[in-house]
Amino acid sequence: MDTLTAITARRSIREYENRPVARETIEAILESATKAPSGKNRQPWRFVVLQGSRKAELAAIMAQAAAHRKEQGLDIGSCELSIKAITQASAVFAVFNAFSTEEADYNHYRLLTDTQSIGAAVQNMLLAAQSFGLGTLWMCDIFYAEREIRAWLNRSSELVAAVAIGHAAQAPWPRSRKAWQEVTEWGQE
């Protein structure tokens, strides 16, 4: 599958078949993630692959955090959909920023640089999975349970995202996007 086709065909998948993804495929996707451009070549991304009971534990932690927030009358976003995707997916990648909580002189510009680099790594992951015929879901609902997840995984690094991956059990229609002409200006004289 060529790159433009992968970009155009990619969808956020929230339902998965009960079929495993081969470890070699997961490793190839991770390899693709590490090939992303990285500001100052810092390569701030770190990944934890969760499968089987560890994935179920992640879903339980998120469900508990969502229930607690609901009891308090707080928003839980699309947390329930993310929990369902985590439960059904073959694997979930927890994505961390290795530097934001570790460097004494970490500043706003390093955060922007590292966040962009991590976003590029996640996008590479999504496109690589697409090229293998797999579905993915880039999730940020993990923020509702960030402290709990970090403690459970014994990580001091900042949790930035999670990506569910598996064999899609749905084929969503493309979501509307603004035309490039609506969001672009030409810087000419």
TrEMBL record:
Signal peptide: none annotated. Keywords: Oxidoreductase. It holds the Pfam family Nitroreductase. SUPFAM superfamilies: FMN-dependent nitroreductase-like. Residues 7-167 form the Nitroreductase domain. GO terms for molecular function: oxidoreductase activity. The keyword Plastid does not apply. Belongs to the nitroreductase family. This is Nitroreductase. It comes from Anaerospora hongkongensis.
